[in-house]
Amino acid sequence: MTSREEELKKRKTYLQIAGTACSCCHKSCKEAGVTSLLRCARCKMAHYCSKECQKADFQFHKLFCLAINELYNTEEAWYSCKGMESEWNKRKIYQMQLLGFVLERELTNYERHVWLNQPKCQICFKCPKDLKKLQTLIPCPNCQVVFCCSSDHWEKHRSKHNDLCATYQIMLDCEKIRYQPDQPLWAPEEFDENKSYPPLPRDWNEYFKWRKASQLLQHDSYCRVITNTLSLPLTILAALERFYERDKLHSIDDMVIHIAGANQYELLALMTFEEIMHVLPNIKTLHLVMVGLEMSSMNHGLPLQCCPRCTKENRQRVCSMYPMTYHDFAISLDYSQPHLVVGFNTGLYEDDTELWKPTIKCLLDKNLPCSFTSYSKEEATEDVKLLKEWSAKVLVGAKENKWRSNMPLAEPQEVDKFYYNNYYRTLFQGRVNKEKN
């Protein structure tokens, strides 16, 4: 099994988490030709279309399953949320902490995804564990990922859900494409022969036409999935356009991009970074340096495959990985000055702020051009406030990123709300007080 296939096995889709698709093969009851899915007797969260699928998934499911079972026996973890969304959120966070204690480690992103998105009533926030014996959650017959615990609660929620059910179904259509073995991580092989960049086109539609792929616009979900990965190199290109003059950009032979706080999102999209080379055809070597605590191992200069044309012209892509904070990497012997530092969906103000603070200080001290993105306007605004508190010179603050992903994702801690990768961007470089001196 390839590393990509292993990653797909670890991460569960919304339908798998909802218990309406097999946790191993992704098939629904209808697709598998069965009347109902088998539920894991221990954790009661995983569902399978056959004993064979249950056995095949066991290596990925076992440890988390045991931890969930122990949590079920911890009565204090299942206090009533009293129909309050805020209490439901607090309880989930508390439960994840308890699961971490049982596992003797932090939950992986995959485990967090499962727990945060577990089925619950959209009105009273009860999950299956909270329900009375023989009572079950009732799924929406169309999207199959939104639930209520009773017909009465569905009557209260139906009008709101009817307005959003189509978006849920778009999200699920995108997931079907993403979880295919040959997931489209498309990067066009056409070069920008006329060296027209910068500037970039005005939007995704014009971009696909420019890159001679306008036929993609006829396939909405496929196109949305592609924007989810191409958002990374396009966001980088948009930042380079802001920080460098045209002549400078086209004179760079060896480009170095540092990704701070890198995780699986960037790793699974590695192929698409070649688009930077296709838009900047003078580049001979593109060196991606991924720095983050979620990197599984250290790797120095791993060569990546290039398209036939880049290979023929002896162009190279190289990826290095460092499982550490950026400020620790910056004092290592492997550090070299980048042309740009990017951070995708960083969550500066709400996740690991104390770890980000020395990294931001390091970036400001080195006067490096930086582009950070956020999931939402609210997050981006708070991130900018924090950057300004740390004396960063903000050049573009909390502005909508026209190269954000168009693939909707369900917000796990808010009812019926969606987010998009790289929705807002913030550009900064150096310190404000440097201009005053």
UniProtKB/TrEMBL annotation:
SUPFAM superfamilies: HIT/MYND zinc finger-like
Keyword check for Metal-binding: yes
GO MF annotation: an example: zinc ion binding
PROSITE patterns named in the record: PROKAR_LIPOPROTEIN, ZF_MYND_1, ZF_MYND_2
InterPro entries (UniProt xref): Mss51-like_C, Znf_MYND
Swiss-Prot/TrEMBL keywords: Metal-binding, Zinc, Zinc-finger
Annotated ranges, domain MYND-type: 22-65
Alphabetized PANTHER family for the sequence: GH20023P
UniProt-recorded name of the protein: MYND-type domain-containing protein
Organism of provenance: Glomus cerebriforme
